[in-house]
Amino acid sequence: MAIALYPGSFDPVTLGHLDIIMRSANIFDFVYVSVAVNPSKQPVFSTEQRIRYLQVVTKDIGNVEVVTFNGLLVEAAKEYNAGIIIKGLRAITDFEFEFQMALMNKKLAADVETLFMATNTSYSYLSSSLVKEVAKLGGCIKGLVPPEVHDEIFSQLR
Ligand SMILES: Nc1ncnc2c1ncn2[C@@H]1O[C@H](COP(=O)(O)OP(=O)(O)O)[C@@H](O)[C@H]1O
Ligand SMILES: [Mg+2]
Asked: Among the residues of 28-146, which ranges form H helices?
């Protein structure tokens, strides 16, 4: 069984995230989407909301489950028996930090591999922060977040 863990803040989930989730679910036997509960970060959406939006948009994907993690990512991977950590890569700007994290995680846990998946070109400019910024200023976020959760996300951000 190839089990993967896809971690992130998902504050909120975007179509870029969902694209990575669907492609990962086609490759691996099981994918845990893991919502970071980091007390030092101040997310706009609560942990419960971020989990629920992910659950709604992945409900038809049989081999995906939404979980949470705090603390060391490699420990979370071990807890779920995941030998692979998936990271989405957008631009060069994602690379340096993610590369450093991958090497550190490899040092912490030699048996856990980080796998980088290149963004879908349609979503290469898309980030949760940009979604929040645009919606706050009254801009349209249709086509940026999954349609099933658009209204709830948009109304909270306005
Ligand atoms: N548009 C996108 N295309 C591909 N991957 C993405 C996109 N947006 C975010 N990701 C990836 O999804 C993961 C979670 O991102 P994010 O929710 O911003 O959490 P974090 O706080 O870890 O940056 C990261 O691996 C990030 O690179
Ligand atoms: Mg990010």
From this structure: 47-57, 73-79, 92-108, 128-136
CA of 78 to the centre of ligand 2 (A): 23
CATH number for the domain harbouring residue 105: 3.40.50.620
Which of 13, 66, 90 to probe ligand 1 with, by most ligand atoms within 8 A of CB? 90
How many Cβ atoms sit within 10 Å of the Cβ of residue 17? 26
* Ligand 2 centroid – CA 148 distance (Å): 22
Mean pLDDT of the chain: 96
| pTM tops 0.85 | yes
Domain count of the fold of the chain: 1
Residue span of the structural domain in which 71 resides: 3-157
